[in-house]
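HOLO CASE FILE
Compound: iron/sulfur cluster
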Amino acid sequence: MKVNRELYLKLNESVLPFVQKPARYLGLETGTTVKDIKTIPLKFALAFPDFYELGMSHIGMGLIYDILNSEEHIACERVYMPYPDMNAKLKEHNIPLFSLESFEEIKNFDIVGFSLQYELSYTNILFMLELSGIPIFSKDRSGPDDPFIGAGGPCAFNPLPLNDFMDFFIIGDGEVTTVEVCNAVLKAKNSLKSGTLGKTDYRNYVKSLLAEIRGVYVPGFSKSVQKSILSDIDLDRKFNGNENTAYIAKHIVPLVETVHNRLAVEIARGCSSGCRFCQAGYIYRPVRERKKEAVINAVKHGLQTTGLEEMSLSSLSTGDYSDIEALLSELADLTSEKKISMSFPSMRIGSLSENILQKTATVKKTNFTLAPEAGTQRLRDIINKNISEDDLLKEASLLSQKGFKTLKLYFMIGLPFERIADLDGIADLIIKIKKTAKGLNITVNVNNFVPKPHTPFQWHPMEKESELNFKINYLKRLLKPLNVNFKYQDPKVSFIEGLISRGDDFTPKIIYNAYKFGAVYDSESRLFNCGAWLKALECEYGYNYNEHKYLYEEKNIDSPLPWDFIDILIDKDFLKEEYKKSRLQNLKSIYTSKSNSSFDGDGVSSQNLLTENCRKVCYLCGVCDFKTVRPVYSSKAENIKMHKKKRKDDEKYINININNDTNTENPVGRASFSELTFIYSKRGAAKYLGHLETVKILLKAFRIIGIPLIYRKSEFTSRPKLSFSNPIPFMSESDSLHIKARVSAEYAAETDLNILSDNINRLLPDGLKIIGINVVKHQ
Ligand code: SF4
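Model generated. Tokens follow.
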């Protein structure tokens, strides 16, 4: 039951009936934690400055939510950026932004913590603060009445662009640090209550406490900050070494379709590949793998409690996981028995084996994504993408042999030292893939390179919009006859991304002015308001953005960088060396193509220009002290080695026709099965759920309970045999809806249908209820 009943009633009457997908704002998902918020001493609003569908797909949000709510003294509730129709209604009725769990106004929380995943969502933060009635600038917040506003996530590694708006930033792993931040605020609140701290000193006192926590940067209080780091992502978690417990106790399962509607289990943090363009590869070092047993527990627990039918193993490079084959073997039994599809969002080329594909494809042939990043070996060597064309062709061929239909390839343009021949190389590569891997539908995604802070390319200039546009048009012409889908990023969007991510003390003013000129929802490409940004730059500060210095000029490698005060533990000299190697690699490619002889430049031998995966060779980048911080691998063998060296297809889901028996697979034989008809009602808040959403909620409940549904199986897919009553109009209520499912005759005969109905109802949101189950046996 929502605590703020008054607000709920107001929304129900004047707002929710008039917005699209109101279920986004109702907090009816399974797996949420709703505490009696008025009685909890510390209230934390976990804010995602983008839409619900994106935020619900983000693994880190679920993790922090789970950790904070596992603390008795903390209530953590969620808030997402509302869609434009919702914002208009909230403003029309003078309703401030509220949390999903208790419908509590955001300004009543003690802390509001934003997850920073993408620079183009920064103006949404200002919007959400304003909609909450919280002063946008940190200097305008006063006393204990205003919450502390903080931010964490990958973009926080350059906090300067948001310096004027945030009270604090969390740099690095947030699991432990976020709880420490909450405890510091609570300590100050208690001092305030006891009278030992005055209201006027309150905010400065809290900030001084926060500045003492490792990994917390407080503008105006901290001079520098060292990132926080978990030495072992299994052992440092709250479940301390208990291998039988999943690392996330409760998963929130969305009611509406989200970007990734699947169970995502993080198997490792950090990456050992050393690609010179990749910020994540540097800020999350070193690699820390979750133990195989912990991953399996997490998968079992997640599938059991969510009823989801898809899962993914998440990390920066899943194929590099040291126990990958053994892990997949164990997971394959589990997932094929439960008809779960398994996918890997990030597979390094060269790490995909026949065995891995065999395991992942047991249930459904998922799409595959590979990222060569550059079209030629020359450019791949410059960016230290240690893959070969042979590896790529072998893997594409394997995918087509195994029945995969779609391959997405990711490339970047505007990379350092790129030439037109490298773009030609992209087309050549695709021609070769099409020859070797027949039948694959290929999508080519091209992103514009942004030289990000804390990478070896942080000194390199970004390419101008005109150059990027030229390259995009060039590629369009090259790829047109090849019959591939070509997707690319608007160079104007990349310009803003570069402008913010490489920002300095001056950037908050640009962000604020762009916001005031109408820049909001910029992360949604159709709503991106470039004009507002250009106006903020040109009108207010006289910048011609095509001459923007900190984007378009190479930085002096020996001069300080604005973000140097953020210590990611990597020695700057290591990054410099990597940058120099890339320059020399470029020179080498020019020299050897002209003189056909070997190259040795600037004291660095040609053999050393590539930096190997640091699972094989440690380059002493500075992160590991090999006492408290070191790479952690699931496989013991890998540890020794190290130390020696230093959808849309969900539509199909409900369209399966129970009368189509051509491919029937009945695990107990064709002789007999039973059809269960679940009659259900949809009333109250549940009337906001669409037909598809309702069906999915019911199916998840069936999965959690373990109802052994009979599946229809074809070569590429496996779906339960189901049929449904016709959809009722949106926002209508009914007591006579049904869903029919086939189960074995034995199961139907042995099951107490009243108990089954009660068990399902315990898992359903308010207003959705099974009111009867009928059974018909078929011979
Ligand atoms: S210190 Fe060595 S092992 Fe650790 S992250 Fe750096 S290169 Fe890898």
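CASE NOTES: Residues 572-595 form the longest helix (24 residues). Residues 643-671 have pLDDT under 50 and may be disordered.
CLOSED: yes
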